[in-house]
């Protein structure tokens, strides 16, 4: 009689609210490289220690190409999407850096810093409009602030006319909101793609000073990429980090309200915003399933043989709570003393999020501004009624009713 135990089902579920799955801590202590079972019956490897995750994400013997047999897809939608034309996030060297470099200069930390006044002005304008509307009944912070802020910024970089901002933001909300029906989300996705296609065509006729024009002038017209590539790259930059950033704003607000002394510290000293953002991006990992690979050849990882063709899920969510790297990792501490170690919320290695610099500046603006303008901002519902994403999905808050005095 066989006594072999089937691998546990993955993704694991959060026990409640935004708490990470308990299975990660157990595996870090007992079985840091182990098999799990996905929805399709496949058995990829799950890697949970910080050092091992970093190793996976920098190992050239592992592939990011989703078209390769054995690449772990988290659901049927992901498997279908893997058949689409890839962008640089799904490419290996040298194609990855060749395409990534077409837009990377627009998203450096230095470039983002030059945009800080514009981001600040956008945040101020959204808050002015929100405050003017009052909070009786409670206001959904997502609809009024957390969603439009990053949306307006990325649309501006792409070259979307101001008069189209509201329309596209609504499309993107429908596309990414977990409560939307599958049909509504699919239609919104198609509308966004169609819009980007028309914008590419307009910039073919009349280029301007924006990302779509840069792709058209430097890459499409010389024949380095085709029209579909230009559309897909632009669409990727439009949607890739938007929902994640919205969720990080919401999670940041809730986390501060859960830690009133640290909120008081931030109110008294808004220059703590970068330290708060750093800890927020360690404590909450709003994009935890993107760091996946498939082995191109046999490798040994932490004493475990991973054979060619086997998939790997490198959990940056688990790595961000690794006790060997972050002492007392389940404690949120804006004053946490940090050395050279880094959290992995933005990934690691050459596939690290291309827009990390912009994302950090946006979050710093939000959390150096929000509670200064609204020092008495608080939940408009009981804490127990906050709606979180499904427990087996990336942690997020699709709506957040708030009030203020």
Counting helices, strands and paired strands, the structural category is alpha+beta
Strand content: 5-15%
At CATH level 3, the topology is Cytochrome p450
Low-confidence stretches: none
In total, the number of domains comes to: 1
Mean pLDDT: 94
Helix content class = 40-55%
Biggest sheet architecture = 5 strands, mixed
Shape: globular
- Give the terminus-to-terminus CA distance: 68 Å
Note the total helix count: 17
Going by CATH, what is the homologous superfamily? Cytochrome P450
Instruction: Please state the CA-atom Rg, rounded to the nearest Å.
Output: 21 Å
Identify the CATH class: Mainly Alpha
Strand order, sheet with most strands: 1-2-8-5-3
The total beta strand count reads 10
Q: Name the helix and strand elements from N-terminus to C-terminus, one letter apiece.
A: HEEHEHHHHEHHHHHHHHHEEEEHHEE
**Which architecture does the CATH hierarchy give at level 2?**
Orthogonal Bundle
């Amino acid at each position: 009689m066989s006594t072999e135990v089937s691998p546990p089902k993955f993704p694991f579920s959060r026990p409640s609210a935004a708490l990470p799955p308990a299975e990660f801590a157990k595996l870090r202590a007992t079985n840091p490289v182990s098999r799990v079972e996905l929805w399709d019956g496949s058995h990829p490897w799950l890697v949970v220690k910080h050092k091992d995750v970093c190793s996976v994400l920098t190992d050239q013997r592992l592939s990011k190409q989703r078209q390769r047999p054995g690449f772990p897809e988290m659901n049927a939608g992901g498997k279908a999407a893997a058949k689409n034309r890839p962008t640089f996030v799904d490419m290996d060297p040298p194609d990855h850096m060749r395409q990534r470099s077409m837009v990377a200069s627009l998203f450096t930390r230095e470039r983002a810093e030059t945009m800080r006044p514009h981001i600040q002005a956008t945040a101020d304008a959204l808050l002015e409009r929100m405050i003017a509307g009052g909070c009786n009944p409670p206001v959904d912070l997502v609809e009024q602030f957390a969603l439009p802020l990053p949306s307006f910024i990325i649309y501006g970089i792409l070259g979307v006319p101001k008069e189209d901002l509201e329309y596209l933001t609504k499309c993107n909300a429908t596309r990414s909101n977990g409560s939307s029906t599958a049909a509504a989300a699919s239609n919104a996705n198609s509308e966004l793609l169609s819009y980007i296609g028309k914008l590419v065509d307009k910039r073919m006729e009349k280029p301007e000073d924006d990302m779509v024009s840069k792709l058209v002038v430097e890459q499409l017209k010389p024949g380095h990429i085709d029209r579909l590539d230009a559309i897909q790259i632009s669409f990727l930059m439009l949607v890739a980090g938007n929902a994640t950033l919205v969720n990080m704003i919401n999670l940041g607000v809730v986390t501060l309200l859960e830690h009133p002394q640290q909120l008081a510290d931030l109110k008294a000293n808004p220059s703590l915003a970068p330290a708060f953002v750093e800890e927020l991006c360690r404590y909450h990992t709003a994009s935890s399933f993107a760091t996946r690979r498939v082995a191109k050849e046999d490798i040994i990882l932490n004493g475990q043989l991973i054979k060619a063709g086997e998939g790997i899920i490198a959990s940056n969510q688990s790595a961000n709570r690794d006790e060997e790297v972050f002492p007392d990792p389940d404690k949120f501490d804006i004053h946490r003393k940090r050395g050279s170690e880094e959290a992995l919320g933005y990934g690691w290695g050459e596939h690290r999020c291309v827009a990390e610099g912009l994302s950090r500046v946006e979050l710093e603006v939000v959390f150096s501004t929000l509670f200064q303008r609204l020092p008495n901002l608080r939940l408009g519902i009981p804490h127990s009624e906050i709606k979180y994403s499904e427990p087996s999905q990336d942690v997020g808050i699709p709506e957040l009713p708030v009030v203020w005095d």
